[in-house]
Amino acid sequence: MSPQEAQRKSRLLRGIHRTVTGLHPALESLMAAVVGLLVGAILMKIWGFKPWEAYRALIQGAYGGGYELSNTLAWATPLILTALTFSMCLRAGMFNIGAEGQMYMGALAAVCIAYFVLPPGIHHLVGLLFAATAGALWSLVPAALKLLRGVSEVISTIMFNWIARWLGLYLTLNILVDPIRSEKSVSIPTSARLPVLVEGTSLSYGIFVSVAFALVIYFLLWHTATGYELRAAGLNPTAARYGGIRNKRTMFLSFILGGMAAGLAGATIMMGMPPTYAAFGGFPQMLNMGFNGMAVAMVGRNHPIGIIIAAIFFGGLSSGGGWMQILAGVPLEMVNVVMGAIVLTMSIPELIRVFPAIKNGTYKLIRSLRDGKGKAVEEGST
Amino acid sequence: MSDEHAARNSEMFLRAEKITKVYSDGTVALKEASVEIRSHEIIGLLGENGAGKTTFTKILSGLLPPTSGRVISPAGPVRFSSPREALDFGIGMVHQHFALVGTFTAAENVALSYARPFSRIQLAKTIEQLEALMEESGLGVPLDVPVEKLAVGEQQRVEILKVLSRNVDLLILDEPTSVLTPLEVDELFNLLRRLRDAGKSIILITHKLKEVQDVTNRIIVLRQGELVGDVQTASATTEQLAQMMVGQAIEAEAGAVELSDEELPASRTLKAVNRTVDSILQVENLTIRGNTGEIAVDDISFEIHGGEIFGIAGVEGNGQTELVESLTGLRVPDSGTATINGTNILGVDPRQIYRLGVAHIPEDRWELGLVLPFTLAENAILGVHRWEQFRGALSVLKWGRINQHVKQLMERFEIRAAGPGAPAKSLSGGNQQKLIVGRELAKNPDIIVASQPTRGLDIGSAYYIRQTLLDMREKGRAILLVSADLDEVLAHADRVAIMFEGRFMEVCSPADLTRERVGMLMGGVTEAKETA
């Protein structure tokens, strides 16, 4: 390869890279959504369903009217918070997979307020405070293990999810158990229930808690020195240290805030979801909300505002999926496949940004294919 | 066996003909270098940083393809497209950083290097082979201990063993002595001599003149990608080698000539006018350990006055990085003191150090100096983001004020960028460095620690940044200039220290130094010695 040729090739690669990634993130996500919907449509077409009708049913079921929209927002409420848990920590350079467990602990702490009598308003606040504290405390152990002993937070948070799950089951059925119905915990009294916004749906004032928390996080990250430090430490820990930023402190802070968000997610479900306002063994109302939050964080580009939009989109898929089944005759399994395809496609842009290894690997593959022999790729600069 | 005896048996093993390497960004790393490698000889490969040593050996060992030129063996031209092919041909390289799995034993590491996907690891056979090989070469390594428990010298021997077990004829060692204790160095050299006597060829990359003179038969010298010397060790003097390595005078490269012509006289006169009596930075008996626990900076003392540029020259990796890191709060030294205007700065958080009047232009602007995905504005407050002018109540950042500040910086330091909101990675290298320099000088420092401030920059930006440093000197600031670019240090410093293995070989005015002498000092030689 002559020097001129080499230069031209690398310039071409850079050009392609810029065209693909130079887009505004929102536009990129929109393109990904279109591609995802197309993939879903092709899958449905292959198996003999009518994509057009199915998507119409989906949109109608998700956003078609006040009732439908309310259900979508009700789904979005905890998702916004668990997504914030993941993205907050990711911004600081940590993988917090523990939203699920932190959410369970927050939910149970919220249930505990059934044992006090307080005036409404204060009772709500105490409930939210309890939940946020419990979530934060639960996330502190993996954070401390990471910072003091170097334990990978990925593994420890996943393990803590299981501990939370079984500890939660024990607490629900043995300690916080309802004296009359032994399959559930005591119910949160009316003085601490978040009022329902739209009658007949599960949309409660919890949505305001979620959105407010997202806005607070947004302000914190982009308008305070603390958030600046957190983002700098996540993007380049070495440069952050050079800038006098204490990386361990920012990591700790991200885990505390993340745990608070997950705890609040538990509270919005316990205090805001009719009709029982209580925890059941196995947590059917909350199951996988923490994990789905990670997908929402990816679709929302790890940005608090993006997460709100992504959660509403995701909530729409969840609440409208049923309508695909009813109106378009698409079986539940197919609905899940189509949703999986859409979410996966929409996560790709952010996944690539977070894990540059994916991008580099793809480049290498393309280049080795182009060179014909799949031989060692030239080092040096590109 | 004597050198003469070895030489008599020597025969051509490989010849590199007119090897040129141009990297895809246009950097010319090698210009038509031709070298013949014979059996029964140890070749010393000398050169400064960036002279092309590494590129040359990478081409020989199959890591890089040459842009033009060819490698010829007695059987005809050869071309390696991977290190494995080179290894099969008989060329093995021991890198400066070992490729060993710490929890595996030496035998397991060697067996692993044979492994192909889905092949069986034949540990018993490998151990048998290794024991035979160790007996033959006199190279002793415990085979059944995890290598992370071995000393660095032993780990290196595992690496050598790994390569030798492939039955190579040419062994390339990249700076093998930089991690070793003097005793381990002696052992290594004895081993290399035995291997040579057994008929192997060895290429030793180093910048230590004494070592090359001790152990090699022949020395080749690269400077700025060109082969400038190919001499028998016995017939070369230390001065000659030093001179070949650093060049004659300041060469007409990279605009250095115009710079030195204008500035050399100026610097002398300025010194008398502006140098303050009191020293700003005072360092005493500073000893610092490197990342692997070795002594990186060994008991050095110096002071820098206001209105003075104190230059540190030397080959990289001789303690400069550790020294700079200790003075800027990034590394805690072992012992000694360092004060700025009488206040201790050792072990102090970088944030406080900046408050004490230290500015730091780091050597690695991508890793240390900038958060590349951040915008210009965000990067412009790194380290000063908690200062009152940028931060209000509740730690809220005053973006209006910050953007205004960035616009001023862009104007004053000629930073060409789309605006304060453009990401730092979209800037050219020169503009990135100007951004860092601007940010650091905006701290209104008493002392500026500048580490490799012009590395990799275009001529215009480099000139601008040097000029800025000279301006700061004129304003009575103290400047610590650490650079691998010898011409830069000699042309700008009022006093220069030459650093070798953690010590200052000499501290004096650049006017009192000849280039030859600098070359020798950089290679660790104080007294010229004739090796006839």
Description:
The complex is a heterodimer of chains A (382) and B (532). Helix content of chain A is 74%, strand content 0%. Chain A has 382 residues and is mainly α. In chain A, helix 6 packs antiparallel against helix 11 and helix 13 (304-328) runs antiparallel to helix 14 (332-354). Chain A starts with a helix and ends in an 11-residue tail after the last helix. Chain B is of the alpha/beta class. Chain B has 19 helices and 20 strands. In chain B, helix 16 (429-441) packs parallel to helix 17 (459-474). The two termini of chain B are 19 Å apart.
Task: Please give a handful of descriptors for the protein shown.
heterodimer; A: 382 residues; mainly alpha; 15 helices; 74% helix; globular; disordered C terminus; B: 532 residues; alpha/beta; Rossmann fold; 3 domains; six-stranded mixed beta sheet; 20 strands; 24% strand
List the helices and strands and how they pair.
The complex is a heterodimer of chains A (382) and B (532).
Chain A: H1 3-21, H2 25-46, H3 51-63, H4 66-91, H5 99-112, H6 122-149, H7 153-175, H8 206-223, H9 225-235, H10 237-242, H11 247-272, H12 289-299, H13 304-328, H14 332-354, H15 356-371
Helix pairs in contact in A: 2-14, 3-4, 3-13, 4-8, 4-11, 4-12, 4-13, 5-6, 5-7, 5-11, 5-12, 6-7, 6-11, 8-9, 8-11, 8-13, 9-11, 12-13, 12-14, 13-14, 14-15
Chain B: H1 3-9, E1 12-22, E2 28-38, E3 41-46, H2 53-60, E4 68-73, E5 76-78, H3 83-89, E6 91-94, H4 106-114, H5 123-137, H6 152-164, E7 170-174, H7 182-197, E8 201-205, H8 209-215, E9 218-223, E10 226-232, H9 238-246, H10 256-274, E11 279-289, E12 295-305, E13 308-313, H11 320-327, E14 335-340, E15 343-344, H12 350-355, E16 358-361, H13 365-369, H14 376-380, H15 399-412, H16 429-441, E17 447-451, H17 459-474, E18 478-482, H18 486-492, E19 495-500, E20 503-508, H19 515-522
Parallel strand pairs in B: 3-8, 3-9, 6-7, 7-8, 13-18, 13-19, 16-17, 17-18
Antiparallel strand pairs in B: 1-2, 1-4, 4-5, 9-10, 11-12, 11-14, 14-15, 19-20
Helix pairs in contact in B: 4-5, 4-6, 9-19, 10-17, 10-18, 16-17
